[in-house]
Write a structure and sequence with these properties.
The protein is mostly helical. It is built from 13 helices and no strands.
């Protein structure tokens, strides 16, 4: 009697995922994890989501009074408070997504050791939670810009979306990379804290790109622009601050070219992060 072996072709090794594609096939579970993380953030809070709008508004007032008026930075950069808040918004998104993505596996160790699910889901959920937390800050920045006469073009709105895409891919890739390493070597988390601390200064958030161009050689300035955060920050400036600037400031040289490079670099980091993640995930349950 002939034995039917047709089922053998569909058998898969237990505990092995198809990577990022598996995450999107479990969208409902991903949504549950994101919802849980957001609810934890505001658990026990009376005002809840209101704090997400109050914080950037208070930041704006502090920047406007302390930096713009007392330090007179408005004289060198018009609407300096909006300039700095726009840059901080996109860098904060990166820092939160990257930091939480690095800790996401160790923070969910109990769940990972009990059941199987696509482990990439945790750094991706961390990025989505960071994005949700960043949206109120973006709304506040845009509302303030509208008050001062913000009238963007379609290209400037597209610049904001492109910046968010670059940072989302970059933070997810780095979160998977360092998150996987952090399972075995917890020093990775401390290294990430140093990167996050330097991120705000490694891109034109607190200063303008002209200050870097005037102090460093051209080749070093080119490397500075290849940092994906640099064009991402400048895209946010281009979308929110540039329409307000009465002096007609110039965007980062070759902004769109370097934005394309930033997108490519972020994609490569995402692919590399997924590769390292899949190579190490077989030890997650054991090391955790």
């Amino acid at each position: 009697m002939r034995r039917d072996t047709s089922d053998a072709a569909v058998l898969e090794e237990p505990g092995r995922s198809r990577g990022l594609t598996d995450v999107f096939s479990h969208r409902h579970l991903l949504a549950l994890i994101v919802r849980k993380e957001i609810q934890i953030r505001y658990r026990g809070s009376i005002f809840g989501w209101l704090w997400s709008y109050v914080k950037p508004l208070v930041q704006f007032l502090v920047f406007y009074v302390a930096l713009g008026v007392f330090l007179a930075l408005n004289k060198s950069i018009d609407f300096y408070a909006i300039y700095i808040l726009a840059g901080i918004t996109i860098v904060t998104f990166f820092n939160e997504a990257f930091s939480n993505g690095t800790r996401s596996l160790t923070d969910n160790a109990a769940l990972i050791k009990k059941i199987y699910l696509p482990r990439e889901m945790f750094p991706i959920a961390s990025m989505l939670v960071a994005l949700v937390n960043t949206v109120p800050q973006i709304i506040v920045v845009i509302a303030i810009a509208l008050f001062f006469g913000w009238a963007p073009t379609i290209l400037q709105v597209a610049a904001l979306l492109l910046a968010l895409l670059i940072v989302a891919m970059l933070a997810t890739g780095l979160g998977m990379l360092f998150g996987a390493v952090n399972v075995t070597f917890r020093d990775a988390q401390s290294f990430v804290e140093i990167i996050v601390m330097c991120a705000v200064w490694a891109s034109p958030v607190m200063y303008q790109w002209e200050m870097v161009a005037s102090k460093v050689p051209e080749w070093l300035f080119a490397l500075y622009r290849l940092n994906p955060l640099t064009p991402a920050v400048e895209l946010f400036h281009y979308g929110i601050w540039f329409p307000l600037d009465p002096r007609g400031a110039q965007p980062l040289p070759n902004l769109w070219t370097y934005s394309a490079w930033a997108l490519v670099i972020a994609l490569l980091i995402l692919v590399f992060g997924q590769f390292v993640f899949r190579r190490l995930e077989g030890r997650f349950a054991q090391d955790l």
